[in-house]
Design brief:
2 copies of one chain form a homodimer.
Chain A: H1 3-13, E1 18-21, H2 28-36, E2 41-44, H3 48-62, E3 67-71, H4 72-89, E4 93-99, H5 115-119, E5 125-128, H6 135-146, E6 153-159, H7 160-164, H8 186-196, E7 200-204, H9 211-224, E8 227-230, E9 237-239, E10 247-248, H10 253-260, E11 265-269, E12 293-298, H11 304-314, H12 339-349, E13 354-359, H13 365-370, E14 377-381, H14 390-400, E15 406-411, H15 412-415, H16 421-427, E16 432-438, H17 443-451, H18 459-463, H19 474-480, E17 484-488, H20 491-503, E18 508-513
Parallel strand pairs in A: 1-2, 1-3, 3-4, 4-6, 5-6, 7-8, 7-11, 8-10, 11-12, 13-14, 13-15, 15-16, 16-18, 17-18
Antiparallel strand pairs in A: 9-14
Helix pairs in contact in A: 1-2, 1-6, 3-4, 3-14, 8-11, 9-11, 12-20
């Protein structure tokens, strides 16, 4: 058993069984170990940004890490943007990055780089294996680190000789720490505060945005009048019919300020106080209303579900029936195609327990509003703001949940970043329906140009925001990677195409030409 | 004049007039300054790996920096792989990376990251501007740093408020240092050594691989019997008819050892001693023959052309006529399509003074051999080993040299990394003919799997090396981005398609189905 085999064996013993991969020469022993050790499924992606985004989607759904297989510093580099998003999502994720053999680094061969430097900014935990004898133990540590609440990025750097040299054997799985419990009595203190607040709100993030946590929150809301909120970009939110409703914070700073209005108590559960996504001259960065108290009921690494249960008890809301959203489906739209007509069709047709991966950007508002009363589903958002996460996260979500329909809503600008995802959807026959909002523009930037006070933009400025000229043809792009695709120019066309795509198993793409 | 305007004005005053861009909100003032300050051409790329690769290609051709415009840590992250290649190429290049406003960082908004951490591994020079008053001066420093021989990566991190706050004015251009001269007398010492060596060789890299340096080298070779060599992956090599021939080092370590054979003196001019690209169990990393002396005539930051001229003088070769390659064009091939038939057509049809961007990987051997006696051209190679450089470098080369035909030879695996390049070729109507070698495989890895001793590969391993199933359709992909494309399955088809593409101005793609 070589080091690579001891590592793969350790990972599978720890329950890590899925590897999104884009390997190179220095990872060949790891690749070979996928056959000599049973239990690890490799999924090839044709670019590392797809690899890491897929692992993010997988981890968000299954709440356990997939492993990425990356090639040296530049391979890690290509994966960094979606690791940034995964880090912001609190996704458990393990990177295995091959490096040159330890003794080869001194020769400064062309692919030599500061691999630890590449990995550090996105890694909660990072270790360079020093010997084939320690690789297995390092792998077990990586799993343990990835599983620390709410979920961490663990990066194991694997010099080629530590993979090919002889190992002793696999390492035992380590104890996975449960999320920390909140301090005794804290729920009581927050409950007291809630009683005297006039306009309280609870801002939730993390696992508490699934059914159980939301039901506790709904009970508290019914009893105390608190609003139940989530971030603009929550990693994963359960919503739709049969689930308590959550109000999502709007995107722009001044909208958040308006939205929070007279809120005088903001209780944080797994979240942090709302801030502006970007800075703007003469606009606030901190979006908490001036006279609002902010209290942390549960930090991100703490058990938010338990915290809400304790708060429900402390407020006397335990016996209250949570208010669940009733199913309400809009009619199909006719005529012009736009985010509203798309949202109507989506809300109407969305199958039970689907996963919506949302990087629709400026076109996401109406679909988000309209699906609020659709069949119950999970909603995965762009947590770190680095565009190009949607298609890869859809890949990973579909691998994680093969029995659920994944719907990926994507702006055309962001989708171009990691369009290689479509090929993996085709190869693995993943059940993903992708809707590309083809407005041929980095539309948000046309808004931001004015908001930052940079004016309306001259011809050169506007040329950098316009992704038309030439127009992308997403049907061609998808077909070029083996994914069946159609274009829709009217609501009627879109309705028919979406119905067909959602009724079929396997990848489909609809280019919604806006 | 705000900080961004003072920076753009300083850059243009320094002769930096081309900006490959993929901006976001934090760069909007820089974008607006492209209109308020004359003289900077923005070129939009739909992914940052295209931005940085294009700046590499531009810098290799013009020997001056383009500026990249990147968005925060993740935008920098997406550009790192091609910055790694540019760093290995010794390309002058300036990154301008927007960051959150200085006062906004404390709020840890979703896109906040360790931006300096992202930038550091690939940057020779890095600075975070602290104020709108110093941005212009920092810009001038960045140009000076980028122009340090042989060419450096200079990264200027630009917090949004330093762009939008008021500046005093532009900064004066700084002195650009000429490459260092080699020590007095060194050429004489090397010349003495050359006289007593039985099988000497001169390994050249950098500017000395253009006509003037090669002519000096050829004189020395004629006088002393030294072989003239270049690295497997030279940033830029002048070759073809009318240029002295250079032998290119082979790729694999044991081939290099064989190739150098009984070489007893290796003189380095702008290069380093040859090493194995990767480590392999039981194969040498150091490829210099055991009894071979290695002498540095010129380090990479020194003037290799001048050094060769001094060595020519010291060896009494100054008056010798250099041996120039005679034009010899192969016939067109017929029948099966393969790297040889492609190489024949390319060598036969290559226009005068073309630029070949070569990421053909395993399919590059025959085209490289066959074009050695074609019309004179520049050859740009994959210097850092990070695949996905070819298409972007072709973009940059075509922007830098609008009057020259650029031919991009690309493996299908690598081309998928940065296929967004094709869109920029279409938008800017760049004169690039791309040939995709569609073997549907990471073919090199099938070789490397065995070479590293990992066996022949089981089904899982082989699934990660095979990029067929489904096959990519490059005609669809190119057309989806507005580039005219055809597929060739025979030599005859390829010959006709290449002739048509090279006879036309503007982007074309040929998918060579192997």
């Amino acid at each position: 058993m070589n080091g690579a085999e001891s590592l793969v064996r350790t990972l599978t013993d720890c329950g890590v069984d899925t590897c999104f991969a884009n390997p190179g020469t220095s990872e060949m022993h790891f690749v070979a170990a996928l056959d000599s050790v049973p239990g690890m499924r490799p999924i090839l992606c044709l670019f590392e940004g797809v690899v890491t985004g897929a692992a993010d989607g997988y981890g968000r759904i299954l709440e356990k890490p997939a492993v990425t297989l990356l090639h040296l510093g530049p391979g890690m580099g290509n994966g960094l943007a979606n690791l940034h998003n995964a880090r912001r999502a609190g996704t458990p994720l393990i990177n295995v990055v091959g490096d040159h053999a330890t003794y080869h680094l001194q020769y400064d061969a062309p692919l030599t780089s500061d691999l630890e430097g590449f990995a550090r900014p996105v890694s909660h935990w990072m270790k360079t294996s020093k010997s084939s004898k320690t690789v297995a133990g390092d792998g077990a540590l990586a799993v343990q680190a990835a599983m620390r609440a709410p979920g961490q990025i663990a990066t194991l750097l694997l010099p080629a000789d530590t993979a090919w040299d002889e190992a002793t054997g696999p390492a035992r799985p380590l104890t996975i720490a449960a999320p920390a419990q909140i301090a005794d009595g804290l729920a009581g203190i927050v409950a007291d505060k809630l009683r005297t607040a006039e306009r309280p709100a609870i801002l939730i993030r993390g696992k508490a945005l699934q059914a159980e946590g939301l039901e506790h929150a709904s009970r508290i809301a019914a009893k105390t009048g608190a609003r139940i909120l989530c971030d603009t970009f929550a990693p994963r939110l359960r919503r739709g019919a049969g689930v308590p409703a959550v109000e999502r914070l709007p995107y722009f700073a001044e909208q958040i300020v308006d939205f929070l209005g007279e809120t005088d108590l903001l209780i944080l559960v797994g979240s942090t106080a709302p801030v502006s996504f970007f800075a703007y001259p003469d606009k606030p960065s901190d979006c908490v209303p001036e006279k609002c108290d902010v209290m942390h009921l549960a930090h991100p690494h703490e058990d938010g579900v338990q915290a809400l249960e304790e708060l429900a008890e402390a407020t006397g809301a335990s016996g209250v029936k949570p208010t669940l959203v009733a199913l309400a489906l809009p009619d199909f739209a006719t005529g012009q195609l736009g985010q509203s007509s798309i949202g109507q069709a989506l809300a109407r047709l969305l199958p039970d327990n689907a996963v919506i991966v949302d990087e629709a950007a400026t076109n996401g508002l109406a679909p988000g509003f309209l699906t609020a009363t659709a069949k119950p589903h999970d909603h995965l958002a762009l947590t770190g703001g680095s565009i190009g996460m949607g298609l890869p996260v859809a890949v990973g979500a579909a691998v994680a949940a093969p029995d659920r329909k994944v719907v990926c809503l994507h702006g055309d600008g962001g989708a171009m970043y990691t369009l290689q995802s479509l090929w993996t959807m085709a190869r693995e026959n993943l059940d993903v329906t992708t809707v590309i909002f083809a407005n041929r523009s980095y539309a948000i930037l046309n808004i931001e140009l004015g908001r930052v006070g940079a004016g309306v933009g001259g011809p050169k400025a506007l040329s950098t925001l316009d992704i038309g000229n030439p127009n992308l043809n997403w049907v061609s792009l998808a077909e070029g990677m083996g994914v069946e695709a159609t274009a829709a120019r009217t609501a009627e066309e879109f309705n028919v195409q979406l119905e067909s795509a959602l009724a079929t198993q396997g990848p489909r793409l609809i280019e919604a030409i806006l």
